[in-house]
Amino acid sequence: MKKFLISFLLIGLVLFLFLTNFADAYVRVRGYFRKDGTYVQPHYRTYPNKYKFDNWSSWGNYNPFTGKPGYRKW
Predict the structure, then answer these.
(1) Residue 10 falls within a domain, yes or no?
(2) Which pLDDT tens digit goes with each residue over 19-63?
(3) pTM (2 d.p.)
(4) Cβ contacts of 48 within 8 Å, gap of 6 or more
(5) Closest to 44 (Cα-Cα) out of 68, 21, 60
(6) Are 15 and 8 a contacting pair, CB within 8 Å?
C-alpha cells in the first residue's frame, strides 16, 4: 500500500510539472515608456525561447488574444 501511494504521488507530480510547462505559453508584458517618451501598452507575447516557428507571428499560427493569423514565413 505504501509503495502504491508513493508511486501515485510521484506520477501526479510528474504530470503536474509536465502540464504546467505547456500552460505557460505566454507571458504578460507590463506597460513601459521608451527612451523617446512613447508609452507602450501592456500586452501578451509568447514565452521567449530559441525557436522562431512557435511564435504567434509565424505563418500557420494565430494570436489567441486578437485572433489574427501569423504572417511570417521565415
Answers:
(1) no
(2) 555 555 788 999 999 999 999 999 988 887 787 777 888 888 888
(3) 0.50
(4) 27
(5) 68
(6) no
Of residues 41, 39, 38, the one with CA closest to residue 28: 41
C-alpha cell at position 58: 509565424
17 occurs within a structural domain: no
Parent domain of 72: 24-74
Within-domain flag for 6: no
**How many separate domains does the chain show?**
1
How many other CB atoms are there within 10 angstroms of residue 45's CB atom? 14
Nearest to 63 by CA among 26, 31, 30: 26
Residue 11 counted as domain residue? no
